[in-house]
Amino acid sequence: MSDLFSRRLALLAESDHLPLLHQCLHGIERECLRIDPQGHLAQTAHFPALGSALTHPSITTDYSEALLEFITGTAQDPEQVLHELEQVHRFADSVLAQEQEYLWSASMPCALPDESQIPIAYYGTSNIGRLKEVYRRGLAVRYGKAMQCIAGIHYNFSLAPEVWPLLRQSADAELSAQDFQSACYIELIRNFRRYSWLLMYLFGASPVLDRGFLRDKPHQLEVLDEHSLYLPYATSLRMSDLGYQSNAQAGLTPCYDALNTYIQSLTQAVSTPYPPYAEIGCQRDGEWIQINTNVLQIENEYYSSIRPKRVTQSGERPIHALRARGIQYVEVRCLDINPFLPLGIDSAQARFMTLFLIYCALQESPRLGQDDCGACSQNFQTVVREGRRPDLLLRRLGADIPLQEWANSLLDEFQSIAEVLDQGREKALYQQALATQRAKVAEVALTPSAQVLAQLHTQRISFRDFALQQSQRHAAFFREQPLSPELSAHFTQLAQESLAAQAQLEAQQTQSFDDFILAYQNNL
């Protein structure tokens, strides 16, 4: 435990400041595929009863038309966020029930049809809607459509804004308030890169996938059964190099020394042509197939396990918001969906995420040299591919260390945060959440990835059959306790209002799409 961490935590634990640690904001974005009763990818369009995927505040689509995304607001209590997520699930499931569809329970997709039969998300005829669709067409030509069907959970997190002036004053920092806050979030991100392998061990839940997902591409996976491929000690194949693979992005490593260097890295990537994409071109037969031929079409194409974020204004690009107003929160993007949980995540995991991210924010975070960056990436990939291997070694400060030893030392440091957060509370919820993760380190069979494989072996079923079985169980869970008439009416009204908002956007359209996309390109 560093002196800096001890001092910062002691400062925040003082009676006058303790409430600030309970004012962290949490938010969740959960992706999930729509499937038919046989477990096949839904070929239906986004249902109007769910509202407009373009303008609905809580229900949208991600890369594929069949890939729903549920978005919560933010709250200080993780339980409140999970409660909101459950309500959105119940409403969406009630719509899907009428259409005889289910929500796929796993991160890795169901058995997929031919690429031509995987529908790209559609957002209507407004320029902003068409831009979102063209961006996804670009992802299809760059990475293939199967990759667009991978689902995950994004966890949004911020500390109370009042924390940063307090830490700034104690550090006697010369940076402005905005720059100090951004610098601290960059330090959080650097520490996240150091320690995120632990999240893969504890919460990775994709050690197996459907054989058809790889489209006969070469791989190093082992055969589990006729329809399933796996790695025996893997935790998260979703986050392995089987996920998004891009030669264009291979040389793109945004610098996390400071916010300005991070912005420079992404600005260069979204404005630098990539020859293979240039050969494809932006249009085919008069139709747009990608926004541009650069390394990245837009900033969000960069595939990272965590992102610095700032709420954008209408029409504002993410890098502009960060440059103008600094980092507001972070978005953790590496969490698998737990197929045993109806929401894919539970309160114990959410509370542990709080401990983990507070630790990353308060702990000393020196800049990462080239060797350090390499070690972080290697540790992460080692754990996603073989994190449950007995006596697995990781690299820390130039030396090998057993995963279990390093994990326990980190959990020991989280203990002090959990004790502070549980002060004055009837239940020691954060310490209980921490104890749940300690048990996984002590007994690997308790990890979600181990439990998935155990179910497949015990029941002698394929991954596709297991995930369909879980999907049906989750649907039964939601349908046994439907929304109240009042909440159902609330969500129905939201859907109708979003459809009206999309129609208004389309009716007010004046600028041609070609001019719109040119203006967007020039707005860097």
UniProtKB/TrEMBL annotation:
Q: Which residues form the Glutamate--cysteine ligase domain?
A: 10-383
Q: According to its record, what are the GO cellular component terms?
A: cytosol
Q: What is this protein called?
A: Glutamate--cysteine ligase
**Biological source species:** Azomonas agilis
The EC number(s) attached to this protein equal 6.3.2.2
Per the record, the similarity remark reads: Belongs to the glutamate--cysteine ligase type 1 family. Type 1 subfamily.
Starting at the broadest rank, the lineage of the source organism is: Bacteria, Pseudomonadati, Pseudomonadota, Gammaproteobacteria, Pseudomonadales
From its record, what is one biological process in GO terms?
glutathione biosynthetic process
Q: Name one GO molecular function term.
A: ATP binding
Q: Organism's domain of life?
A: Bacteria
Question: Which reactions fall under this protein's catalytic activity?
Answer: L-cysteine + L-glutamate + ATP = gamma-L-glutamyl-L-cysteine + ADP + phosphate + H(+)
